[in-house]
Structures are given as structure tokens and as C-alpha cells.
Amino acid sequence: MEGGDHLAHERKKAQFDVEAMKIVWAGSRHAFEVSDRISKLVASDPAFRKDNRPMLSRKELFKNTLRKAAYAWKRIIELRLSEEEASKLRFYVDEPAFTDLHWGMFLPAIKGQGTEEQQQKWLPLAYKMQIIGCYAQTELGHGSNSSKWWPGGLGKISTHAVVYARLITDGQDHGVHGFIVQLRSLDDHSPLPGITVGDIGMKFGNGAYNTMDNGVLRFDHVRIPRDQMLMKVSQVSREGKYSQSNVPRQLVYGTMVFVRQTIVADASCALSRAVCIATRYSAVRRQFGSQNGGPETQVIDYKTQQSRLFPLLASAYAFRFVGEWLKWLYTDVTQRLQANDFSTLPEAHACTAGLKSLTTAATADGIEECRKLCGGHGYLCSSGLPELFAVYVPACTYEGDNTVLLLQVARFLVKTLSQLGSGKQPVGTTAYMGQVEHLMQCHCNVQKAEDWLKPAVILEAFEARSARMSVACAKNLSKFTNPEEGFAELSGDLVEAAIAHCQLIIVSKFIEKLQQDIPGKGVKQQLGVLCNIYALFLLHKHQGDFLSTGCITPKQAYLANEQLRALYSQARPNAIALVDAFNYTDHYLGSILGCYDGNVYPKLYEAAWKDPLNDSVVPDGYREYIWPMLKQQLRTARL
Ligand SMILES: CC/C=C\C/C=C\C/C=C\C/C=C\CCCCC(=O)SCCNC(=O)CCNC(=O)[C@H](O)C(C)(C)COP(=O)(O)OP(=O)(O)OC[C@H]1O[C@@H](n2cnc3c(N)ncnc32)[C@H](O)[C@@H]1OP(=O)(O)O
Ligand SMILES: Cc1cc2nc3c(=O)[nH]c(=O)nc-3n(C[C@H](O)[C@H](O)[C@H](O)COP(=O)(O)OP(=O)(O)OC[C@H]3O[C@@H](n4cnc5c(N)ncnc54)[C@H](O)[C@@H]3O)c2cc1C
């Protein structure tokens, strides 16, 4: 079948209002309209073509990224785009670039840690891109005194950096502080005296994250003017005297709280993109299973395909909603900080760190699973999945290695439990710890599979599992005379307790979302199915935790799995419409397998011929290497 909508029959099966779901996914009608308009603007502009990326050398690739970034900036100015629209435009251009760090970390660091005066000086320059900045924290080796290594945008482009370094005055070490440092001349881009700077080299995957100039930086007797130390948290006077404002020192790390929150939102984008590709292709692909000469089975109808794909579809929605909530939490903590209320900072840190860890790990694994769900064709660059994986997977490492971040959450949980004894009532995401006595002995009362559809039943099972795992860790820790030694020894268990706590947050925020007024025929019902799939999939995957802590019985675990199978059948007719609700253009998806019309095979065939290897029938190198070999074989055969 040529042309037309090959997925039309699937779209007709939808039992809900897809247009209404698009608004829910975008977050609001306004967000939907901006996103829709800007994604189409990018898709229709040939300057933003990206299908040639895997074929380009590093130098070509990098120059191409600079061209796109400059062109994007030109369009932003010409069209007088708002900050929101400009950020959407960069998102849909879909190419990691120095601008991510300029807008995503350099500017937020100055906003969060600079004094009013410093902000007035630096922000206008940065907003107009008269200076370009990056965020230089990580070192080549351990410590904060070797060479900076990794910062994106540093290698070749940034003129300035926020550099994290130890502050020493009068021989006294005051710990790590942020400094604005000019790196390159604003006239000819050469490094300033005493500064060595360059790119750290090729990274994983062709194309992929190699559009970014992650860099190395060394200083040799470089003098930074005093007023370029970011001084909101602590100050050095003209006389060299060090003082601290009446704010927690942890605010120095505030940019990380902000960026981790954006990374959670980004996880839902990357995962939904992979899921959209795999779902559409699973409906197009037919393989075996035909009876009486009828059409072969669509692979999406295999239960095994559903049990791998639908939890990922549900996770994409779950991450979307927890990301929305995290944005609210971040806004709330920021407003409180401005009013000198620092009480919710530890929770905001734990939530952003833990959810960054969980969502990026699940997304990276999910993209790879989507590749496998597409069979052999998933391995082709034209499926879009190899590049998506290569670009995405460092999210498990940057902005804090995922295990290190879970250990931060574990510390927060142990501290919360230890404060119960002194009568401090936990609030927010740890409020359930206030009922720890009940949660330690409660029994799940599921008797039939449908009982698992009750939100209160699911919540109590997840709360009991998390509380019991944290309490077990706390009890074991108390057996050590040296707490740090105990923490190190038990770190494996602590990480698992942190995962259980963060999964509870995601499940509970999905349930809370469903308690809101959600307009549109059948929309809430479909989200309910996805919420239950997400929760019961986690319960099934981690049933060892639930069983070993005595939160559920083996029979109840069996019933949860039975209910999960029934939910997959409910999701099946809606699967294509649920991924259409992401409203991705074919340009953004960048995948033949995921194209909207499902006309996959002719497009794959056509794309193959565009590969540079097919420019000639006889390849370069034939005369030099193959022809002599063939002749050699001929002689051997004659002998
Ligand atoms: C393609 C991109 C796609 C999408 C993203 C979208 C937009 C984002 C824009 C750009 C992103 C693009 C590319 C990625 C860029 C990546 C940039 C980086 O990687 S920057 C480097 C980040 N490095 C880390 O994250 C290091 C991890 N380590 C830590 O976080 C450590 O905690 C620390 C901050 C180094 C401090 O370590 P230290 O040992 O000194 O202290 P402790 O850990 O013991 O903590 C002491 C105390 O402070 C509390 N705390 C720690 N961190 C924070 C924080 N961030 N906020 C608040 N409080 C914090 C901790 O809980 C302890 O508290 P206490 O127990 O004492 O009460
Ligand atoms: C693509 C990319 C972009 C980046 N961009 C930037 C940037 O713009 N600016 C910037 O400053 N940095 C950047 N980084 C650096 C990034 O933030 C660090 O790589 C990250 O924080 C991890 O630190 P590390 O590399 O030192 O890993 P390590 O800390 O060396 O981790 C190695 C292993 O040790 C384990 N480990 C480490 N510490 C502990 C512990 N305490 N307990 C238990 N296990 C532990 C980890 O789990 C991991 O398995 C980027 C990195 C990448 C890959």
C-alpha cells in the first residue's frame, strides 16, 4: 500500500479525545499552542535538517551545530520570540550545543548565586549573547585543584565560565565557591593569558553528543577580580575578610537543584519519543501468527511486546506528571528562599536528586528496549533510536552520577527517620514516615485482581515497602559505632531504600494528578489505566522487595500480575492515540520507523539509497583491495 495513512485503522480504535490528551501532555492549552507552533516552524525550515548527522565528520558536525545555533538565534531575534518560545525552539532543533549550558546553567548560576549588583552587570550581557558562558565544576581527577574536565561549551566556544574552586584567604580554606571567569578574548577568541583550554575528544556514538564541545581547562596564575566571586552566599571584602550571609552554604549548589528538575522533565520527552517510535512501528510490523491465509499478526498484539512496551508508555506519562510537580516544588522552594525560609531546601534537593536518578536510568534503559522492540530495523540510524540513546545515556552520569545521587536521598531518609524520635513531624514527600508504626505492621487486603485498582491499596503497599526498607537500614546503621563506616558498608541497601522512596513519589504524584479535574472524553480513564500499569509494573518488577518486607503475600503478587495483563488489553486499542498525544512532528522524531503515516518500508528502502556508500555502484577501494584479493583466490584455486 503506497501513500495514505497506514495507521488510520489504529487511530479509529481510540476510546478517548486525543486533542484533549495533547493539552494534558503539554501541561496547558497555552503550552500546547506554543509547542505546536514552534515545532512546526522548526520542522518546516530546511536549515534545521538533521538526518545527515551520522554521516558527518566531527569537524563538519561541530561547524554545522554552530551554524544552526547562530541561525536559531537570528530567528529568535527576527521573530521576537519570548523566552519560553526561544527555549522551545532550541528544544525542537534537537541538537546538543553550547547554548544548552549558556541558558541552562551559566545564567541560572548567576541568577541563583550572584548578588543584585552582579546580576545587573552580567545578566544583560548573557541574555543578549554578548558573552557566552558554561558551568565548570567537574575535575579530571578527584578534588578541586587539578584541571576542569567535561564542561559543555567550554572546549571551543565559551567566552566565560562559572568556575567552582576553593577559596583560600589568609591561608584559610573556605571550601568550594563559584567565580565568573573570562576565558577567551571577546575580539579574536584566543584564550586569555595563563589559560589553557580545549576539547576533550570524541564521545560515544557517531553524531550524537559530539555536537557538544565538552572541554578541559587549566589556570596558571590567573587573577580573577574580587567582584567576580559569586557573593550571594558568602563574601570577601576589599581587605580580604571572608564572611557568610545568613543563608545555608548548600545554596552554592542551587543550580544543580534547578538543572536536575529540568532533567526530569526532559526524561519524559526522550522516553516518549522512543516509545512513540516503537509503538507506531509495532503496529505497522506484522510477523507470523496468520491463520487461514489472513494477514500476519501486528507485533503490538503479542503479549510479550505489550509487556515490554506499555510499561514504558506508562512511564513516559508518569515522568511527565512528576516533572510537572517537581517544577512546582522548585518554584515553591525558590519563593521560600527569597523570603529567607530554607526549611524545604533539603527536601527539594532529595527530590530533584532522586527523581533525576530514577527517571534518567529508566529512560536510558527504555530507549534501548524500544530499539530492541523494533527488531533489526531499530539498529539502523534511520530509526532515530541509536542516536537518541547515545545522546541520552550520559544523563545517567552528568549532573551527578545516579548512584551518588541516590546516596544523597538515602542520607535524607535516614535523617528524617532519626528526627522522628525528637518529635519532628515529617512533611511533604516524607509525610508517610509519620505513620511509620502503622506502616510497619499493616497488611495488604487485596483478595481479587481488581482490588489492585484501588489507589489507596496501591499507595499503602508502596508506602509500607519504602518505610520498611528505610527503617531496616536505620536499624542496621545503629549497630555501627562509626556512622560513616556503617553508611559505606550498607550503601547497597540504602540505594535500594532510596529507589523505593522515589518510586513511591512518582506513583503518588500520578495518583494525585488523577484527582484533578481533567476534561475530555475518556482522557481521565486512559490516564487511570496508565497509572495502574505504571504502579503494578513496578510492583511486579520489584516483587522481591514487597514480599521480603511482608507488605504483600505471594498470592497478592500473583493477582497484581493478573491485573497487569488485563490492563495491557485495555491499553492496546488506545496505544497509537496515546503516542499521537505527544504531538511530535516527524522532524523532531527523526525516525522512519516512527513516522506519523506509518509508511515505513518504502521510506526505509529510499533512505538506504541515500547512504554515501551507494553513491557509486562499485565502491572506492575496490580496485585497491578487493580486486587483487579476488585474483589471488583465483590463483590459489587453480593450484
Ligand atoms: C541534552 C541535555 C538535555 C536535557 C537537560 C535539559 C536542560 C538542562 C540544561 C543543560 C544540561 C545539559 C547538559 C548537562 C550538563 C551537566 C552539567 C554537570 O554535570 S555539572 C556537574 C554536576 N556535578 C554533580 O552533580 C556532582 C555530584 N555531587 C554532588 O552533588 C555533591 O553533593 C556535591 C554538590 C559535589 C557536594 O559534595 P560534598 O561531599 O562536599 O557534600 P555532601 O554531598 O556531603 O553534601 C553536604 C550537604 O549539602 C547537601 N547538598 C548537597 N547537594 C545539595 C544541593 N544541590 N542542594 C542542596 N543541598 C545539597 C547534602 O544533602 C548535605 O546536607 P547535610 O546532610 O549536611 O544536611
Ligand atoms: C556528557 C557529559 C556532560 C557533562 N557536562 C558537564 C558540565 O557541563 N559541567 C561540569 O562541571 N561537569 C559536566 N559533566 C561531568 C559530570 O557532572 C560528572 O561526570 C558526574 O558528576 C560524575 O562524576 P565523575 O565523572 O567524577 O564520576 P565518578 O565520581 O568518578 O564515578 C565513577 C564511579 O564511582 C562511583 N562513585 C563515585 N563516588 C561514589 C561514592 N561516594 N559512593 C559510591 N560510589 C561512588 C559512581 O557511582 C561511578 O560508578 C559532564 C559529563 C558528561 C558525561
Helix run count: 23
What's the domain count? 2
CATH domain fold name of the largest domain: Butyryl-CoA Dehydrogenase, subunit A, domain 3
List how many beta strands DSSP finds. 8
**CATH architecture title of the largest domain:** Up-down Bundle
CATH homologous superfamily name of the largest domain?
A: Butyryl-CoA Dehydrogenase, subunit A, domain 3
Rg over C-alpha atoms, rounded to the nearest angstrom: 27 Å
Shape: globular
β-sheet strand percentage: 5-15%
Structural class: mainly alpha
Which descriptors apply to this entry?
639 residues; mainly alpha; Butyryl-CoA Dehydrogenase, subunit A, domain 2; Butyryl-CoA Dehydrogenase, subunit A, domain 3; 3-stranded antiparallel beta sheet; 23 helices; globular; binds ligand L4NZOF2J
In words, what does this structure look like?
55% of the residues lie in helices and 7% in strands. It is mostly helical. It has two domains: 99-247, Butyryl-CoA Dehydrogenase, subunit A, domain 2 (Beta Barrel), CATH 2.40.110.10; 251-423 and 447-580, Up-down Bundle (Butyryl-CoA Dehydrogenase, subunit A, domain 3). The model has no long low-confidence stretch (mean pLDDT 95). The site of ligand L4NZOF2J has 26 residues, from helix 6, helix 8, helix 10 and helix 12. It is found in: Peroxisome. Its main location: other. GO terms for molecular function: acyl-CoA oxidase activity; FAD binding; fatty acid binding.
